[in-house]
Specification:
This protein is an alpha/beta fold. Helices cover 28% and strands 17% of the residues.
Length: 196
């Protein structure tokens, strides 16, 4: 059995560049797909959030039009409802990395690896993440304070992307990255294979 630390946002809103607070949370598919793959493989999942707050799902991610239909939406809701780990997260500052075999973060965690000098251990790694075209597609590209694709290029990583909304993953050494929610399932499967 592998132990996987699954880090989720504790935020319930996103402050846009005009100061407006837009309701948010974790994206349902980005939790449900990997969580289901990890637990179906018999692995132990521990959820962690900043300050150990109980994470909330972004309700927009459960709308049938965003979840790929009514059936998928109901399935995702059922997984979230049964996932006790979501209701008992540990605090990130209490995490002992040596207790885990892998850490899974959706979606922009690489940006937090910069130190005071702006250096990161992932400089020049090949990576992907939510692209500017996808952000524009959901109507936030011009409202956001920053865009992930732009920031990953500045990190600097060797950023690449696939077609918008299609699964696209990149692996470089021990760093596994996925472009978008549709990539979360394929990425989790790749991680499970690598941990076997």
């Amino acid at each position: 059995m592998v132990k996987i630390l699954f880090v989720l946002t504790g935020a319930s809103y996103w402050t846009l560049k005009d100061g407006h607070r837009h309701p948010t949370g974790y994206w349902a598919e980005e939790f449900v797909a990997p969580y289901s793959i990890f637990t179906d493989a018999g692995h132990e999942v521990t959820v962690a959030t900043p300050r150990g707050v109980v994470p909330v799902v972004d309700t927009m991610s459960l709308e049938p039009r965003m979840a790929g239909g009514e059936e998928n939406s109901l399935r995702e809701e059922a997984v979230i409802e049964k996932a006790d780990e979501l209701r008992h997260p540990i605090s990130l500052n209490a995490v002992r990395l040596e207790d885990y075999d892998a850490v899974y973060y959706p979606p922009a965690a690489l940006l937090a690896t910069r130190d005071a000098n702006g250096d990161t251990p992932f400089a020049n790694y090949r990576a992907t993440g939510f692209c500017n075209e996808e952000e524009a597609g959901v109507g936030f590209a011009d409202k956001a304070k920053w865009l992930l694709e732009d920031e990953l290029k500045k990190l600097p990583t060797q950023y690449s992307r696939g077609p918008a909304w299609e699964p696209y993953t990149v692996v470089d050494r021990n760093l596994f990255t996925g472009q978008n929610p549709a990539s979360s399932g394929p990425l989790a499967k790749m991680l499970v294979r690598a941990l076997s």
